[in-house]
Amino acid sequence: MVSYAAEHHVRAPMLRADWLTQTFVNWPCRTESVQALLPEGLVVDEYDGCAWVCLTPFVMTGVRPPGVPPTLPGLPTVAETNLRTYVRHGDGQDGLWFLSLEVSCPLMLGARVIGAPYHPGTLRVLADGDTVAYTGSRWTGRASYRLDVHVGKPIEPTERDVWLTSRWRAYTHSMGVLWATPVEHEPWPLAAAAVETLEETLTAAVGLPGPLGEPVVHFSQGVRDVRLGVSRPLSRPGRS
After folding, report:
1. CA 187, 150, 152 angle in degrees (round to 5)?
2. Could you give phi then psi for residue 179, rounded to 5 degrees?
3. What's the structural domain count of the chain?
4. Is position 159 within any domain?
C-alpha cells in the first residue's frame, strides 16, 4: 500500500521549499492508454482496476538550495501545475510519472536534464474565501487550463485519499536511463473540494483520451520544508 507518511529521510536535499495551496484533481483512465505513455521499466499503478491521472496546481515558496535559510529575503515564489500519473518500477516501488509540468519560473527548466517535462508559462493562483482559482497557459503551444475549486472541510483521509495524493519519489527518463528523485515532507493535510470550473487542454496535449468518470478532488493548504533529494539513475529490470 501507499504510505501516508514519508518512506525515507532525505538527509542531503538538493532543493527545499514549501508547497502550498495545492489541489488534486484525479480522473480514472484506461490503463492501456496511460501505459502507452510510459517508458520501459515503469508500469501503471492501478486503483479500482484503472489508471489515474492527476492535475495538481500549487505554489512553491521559499525555494532554495541546501544551506540557504528559509528566512533569507528574496527567495522565489513559483506557481507550478503538474499533470501526473501513478506508476511502479520493476523493483516494486511506487512513485509519480509526470506527463507534463507547467511552471512560471524558467529556472526550473534545468530539471529537463533528467527528463522532467517542464514547460514555461504564465500561471496564476488566486484565493478568495473558500474559492481558489488557478489559470495557466504555455508560452509556446496552445496548452492551457482554468480550474476553480470550492474548498470544503478538513477530512480524515481514507485509503483511497492517501493513494491519490501521497507519493515519495518521482521517476523521469533521459538519455535512455530512468531516474528516481526522492521527496520527504509531512503528510498532506487534506480537505474536501469540489470543481466549479474546469477547462484544460493539457491531457489532450500529451495524447490522453477522455476519462472514464468524474474526478475525485482534494485540497490541501500545503506542506512545509519539502526536501527533494538527489536524482539517481536506476538499473533496468533484470540487470544489476
Report:
1. 55
2. -120, 145
3. 1
4. yes
The answer to whether position 169 is within a domain reads yes
What does DSSP say about strands 169-174 and 94-103: parallel, antiparallel, or unpaired? parallel
**Contact predicate 221/20, CB 8 Å:** yes
Output the pLDDT for position 235.
Answer: 67
Report if residue 9 sits inside a domain: no
pLDDT in tens, 20-36: 999 999 999 999 999 99
In whole angstroms, what is the distance from residue 124 CA to residue 117 CA?
20
Closest CA to 85 of 174, 19, 24, 4: 24
Q: The domain containing residue 159 runs over which residues?
A: 15-233
Q: Is residue 139 part of a domain?
A: yes
Which pTM value belongs to this model? 0.94
**CA-based nearest residue to 3, from 89, 98, 83, 94:** 94
Distance of CA 197 to CAs 164, 200, 203, Å?
21, 10, 16
| Cα gap 187→96, rounded to integer Å | 16
Give the amino acid at 167.
R
Looking up residue 226, the CATH number of its domain turns out to be: 2.40.400.10
Per-residue pLDDT at 10 = 96
